[in-house]
Amino acid sequence: MTDPLGRVRRVPAHIAVMLGLSTAAYAVSLAAVAMDESRAEATVAAARLPALDVIDALARDNGVLDAAIGRADGDLTSAAAAYGTAGSQLSAFEAALAGLAGTVAEIDGVSRTLPASIPLPAVSKTSRTSVPTTHVTTGASGG
Fold first, then answer.
1. pLDDT of res. 111
2. Helix/strand/coil percentages in the chain, nearest 5
C-alpha cells in the first residue's frame, strides 16, 4: 500500500497477526459447519432409509398387482367372449325349441283326433309264472 506521497506503508504486525488469526478462525468455523451439515445429512439419510425400503417394497408389490390386474382383465375378456358365444347359441337353441314346440303342438292336435277316426285294438296283458322243478345232487359226504 502506498500513501498519497507514494511511500510504501507498512501494516503493523499486530494487525497482520489479527488478520491471519481471524482468517484461520473463519476457516475453522467453515470446516465445523461443513462437518455439522455432513453429520446432519447422514442422520437424515439414515432416518429415511426405512421409508425408502417401504417405497421399494410398494413398487414391487405394485408390479405384482399390476400383473394380476392384467391377468384378471384377460380372464374377464375371455369370459365376456364366452358369454357372448353362449348368448348366440342360446338364441339358436330358443329358435330350435320354438320349432319343436310347434311340432309337438301339431302332433298333439293330430293325436287327439286319432281315437275318433281310427279304432284302436284293445291291448290285454297276460302273464304266466311257473317255477321249474330242479334236482340238485352234491358230491359232499353225508348227503
1. 73
2. 75, 0, 25
Distance CA 37, CA 66 (A): 41
Q: At residue 46, what is the residue type?
A: A
Residues with Cβ < 8 Å from 3, sequence gap 6 or more? 9
Question: Residues, the chain, total?
Answer: 143
Q: Which amino acid is at 33?
A: V
The residues pairing with 8 across neighbouring beta strands, listed in sequence order, are 2
pLDDT tens digits for range 52-106: 999 999 999 999 999 999 999 999 999 999 999 998 899 889 999 999 998 988 8
Per-residue b/e over 32-60, b at no fewer than 16 CB within 10 Å? eeeeeeeeeeeeeeeeeeeeeeeeeeeee
